[in-house]
Amino acid sequence: MKKIRKQLAGTVAAAVAVLFSAPVAAEEIVLKVAHFWPSSALSQKQVLEPWCAKIEAESNQRMKCQIYPAMQLGGTPGQLIQQAADGVADIVWTLPGYTAGRFPSVEVFELPFLTRNAEGASRAAWEYYEKYGKKDFEAVKPLAFHVHDAGHIHNNKREIKKLADFRGLKMRAPTRLTNRMIAHLGATPVAMPMPQTPEAVSKGVVDGYVLPWEVVPTMKLHEMTKYHTEMDASQPALYTAVFTIAMNKARYESLPDDLKKVIDANSGVDFSASIGRAWDESAPAARKQAVDRGNKFYTVPASEAAQWVKVGDRIATEWVKDVTGKGYPGQEMLDAARSLIEKHSR
C-alpha cells in the first residue's frame, strides 16, 4: 500500500512539474479596426488588409485585426476619431476634417493648389505632423497621415469650364476648407461625409461633388454623374483631403514591448507615403470606368486655371489668419507645408 501511495505521489508530482514547466501560450491580441469605407474600397483591400497581414506575420500570429468597415461599430464617420480616443475601436481610419475646427494644424494640406501627387504630399504630411500636429492629436496615437490623389469636380447640371459655371450649383465637399473653396469658386457648399454622397446625388440634394477618382466608382457615383472637370496636368491638384490612421493610446501602451515595436515599424512616414502611392496608382483605372460610360470630360486649361489659383491664394491667406488667431504660427506652418510638399514631390 505504501508502495502504491509513493508511486501515486510521484506521478502527481511529475504531472505538476510538467504543467508548470510547459511554456504558456501567448495570448492572441485582436485589434478592432474601424472605418467608413465599404469593404471593397482601396482603403481596406490595398491598405488595411495588407497592413494587418504584415503585423500578424511580424508578431508571429500573436497580433491580428478584426476589420469593421462601413461604420459597423456604430456612430458616424465624424465620430471615428473620438471612438479611437475612447477605445470603442482600437484603430480607426478617418478624416480629421470631418470634425471641423478640432485639428486645425493639418488643415493646411487641404488648401487648393498645394499638392501634386499623393505619395509625396503624404510623406510631407507625416513630417509636418511631427513638428506642428502633435498637440492636436495628443488624444490618440497616429499611425499614418496621408492625402488622396488630385480631387476633381463632378456634377449633373452642366460642364464646368470657368468660374462663372459654378453659380447656382449645390456642391458636396468633405471638410471645412473644401467647403470654403466651393463657396469661393461660386457654388453653394454642402458639407457631408463621403458615405452620404450617393444618396444626396441620386435625390438631387446636391448637383455635384468634389472627389478623387478612386472613390467615384467605389460608390458607383460614375453611374449617377454626367460631367467631370479636371485641371490641366501642369497645375497642382485642385484640392486634396487629409486622412489619419490612429490608434487608441491605452491599447498601444498595453502591448508588450516587442509588439509595440511591430506597430512602430509599420507606422510613420513610409506607411503614410505608401498609402498616398496606392491612391496615385488607383486613379487611371477608376477614371476609365467613367470614360467607358460615355460621361463628358473637360480639362481646365492653364490659362483659365490661373483665375482659379487666385481663389486658392485668397483661401490660404484666410487660413493663415484663422489659425494665427488660435495661437498657431500660421504663416510658418503654410511655408513649411509648401516646402515639404515641394521636397517630396520632385
Notable traits:
TRAP_DctP_sf, C4-dicarboxylate ABC transporter, 5-stranded mixed β-sheet, 12 helices, signal, D-Maltodextrin-Binding Protein, domain 2, alpha/beta, 346 residues, 45% helix
As for the CATH topology of the largest domain, it is D-Maltodextrin-Binding Protein, domain 2
Low-confidence stretches: 1-6, 11-25
> Mind describing the biggest β-sheet?
6 strands, mixed
With strands numbered from the N-terminus, the spatial order across the biggest sheet is 7-6-8-5-9-11
Order of helices and strands: HEHEHEHEEEHEHEHEEHHHEHH
Integer count of domains = 2
On the 0 to 100 scale, the average pLDDT is: 93
First and last CA, distance: 88 Å
Signal peptide: 1-26
Keywords: Signal
Pfam families: DctP
Organism: Allofranklinella schreckenbergeri
